[in-house]
Design brief:
65 residues; three-stranded parallel β-sheet
């Protein structure tokens, strides 16, 4: 199986646990960190519940169009 490499424009990282904070902290400029739920976070954005994620992703797709 051949490996494919793609240039990424930005990365989206979504997490709901304290173990995800390393991921948020590793994001670079232009990347998007989204915390799901309450609690302190290094993410720049937050949604209330996992059920909100599809709507957010649809919105981000619309922004790219």
């Amino acid at each position: 199986m051949a490996a494919h490499r793609h240039r990424r424009q930005s990365l989206i990282f979504v997490g709901d646990d304290v173990t995800d904070e390393d991921g948020f902290n590793a994001l670079g400029e232009g990347d998007l960190g989204i915390k799901v739920g309450a609690g302190q976070t290094a993410a720049h954005f937050r949604i209330d519940a996992p059920a909100d994620l599809p709507e957010l992703l649809e919105y981000l797709v619309e922004l790219r169009s």
